[in-house]
Structures are given as structure tokens and as C-alpha cells.
Design brief:
single chain; three-stranded mixed β-sheet; alpha+beta; 3 strands
Length: 105
């Protein structure tokens, strides 16, 4: 369930201050943040954020298509390495099931 329209988008106050400072000064430095729950506002477009994913900081460049989404959506927390393959010679890997026997006449 989304946030109420009446309340408006959520953004942490400390992050909003950093965005306003970067826009007013024209500073293009990366804004480091742990606030994955903050929404990307139109004021943030054109800025780069370093969003923490639990282990390291992922650089996220805010574009117009990101407005209304959360910063955490663009910094994945899990690494998908693909599905494990079953190998015939590996211990613990089960052999393929035998084909059903043909019916005797």
C-alpha cells in the first residue's frame, strides 16, 4: 500500500538539506546517504547519490524517470549469481531418474 497523497512524498530532512545545498551552490559532489527510504524529488534530478546497500555505497544518478521512486530501488542488496547447475559427477548430485520400463506383452 502506497503513501497517502495528502501527506506527500517522504524524504529525510538531512538528505533534503544536502540536496538544497547542492542545488544552490551548483556543487556536483556525490551525496552519500543511508536513507534508502527517501523518495526521489524533482529537485534531486541531475544529482548523484551514493546509496548504501548494507555493504557498500552504490552510485545512483537521479533522472526524471526516477521521480516518485525510492532511492533503495536503485541500489540492490542481493547479488544473483544464477541458478546452480546439477553436475553428474559431483557428490551429492542425484543421477537422472531412469526411464519407465516398457509394458510387457
Amino acid at each position: 500500500m502506497g503513501r497517502s497523497v495528502k501527506k506527500g512524498p517522504f524524504i529525510d530532512h538531512h538528505l533534503l538539506k544536502k540536496i538544497e545545498h547542492a542545488k544552490s551552490s551548483g556543487d556536483k559532489k556525490v551525496i552519500k546517504t543511508w536513507s534508502r527510504r527517501s523518495t526521489v524529488l524533482p529537485e534531486a534530478v541531475g544529482l548523484t547519490f551514493a546509496v548504501h546497500n548494507g555493504r557498500k555505497f552504490i552510485p545512483v544518478y537521479a533522472t526524471e524517470n526516477m521521480i516518485g521512486h525510492k532511492l533503495g530501488e536503485f541500489a540492490p542488496t542481493r547479488t544473483f549469481n544464477g541458478h546452480a547447475e546439477k553436475k553428474a559427477g559431483a557428490p551429492g548430485a542425484s543421477a537422472p531418474a531412469p526411464a519407465p520400463a516398457a509394458a510387457k506383452k
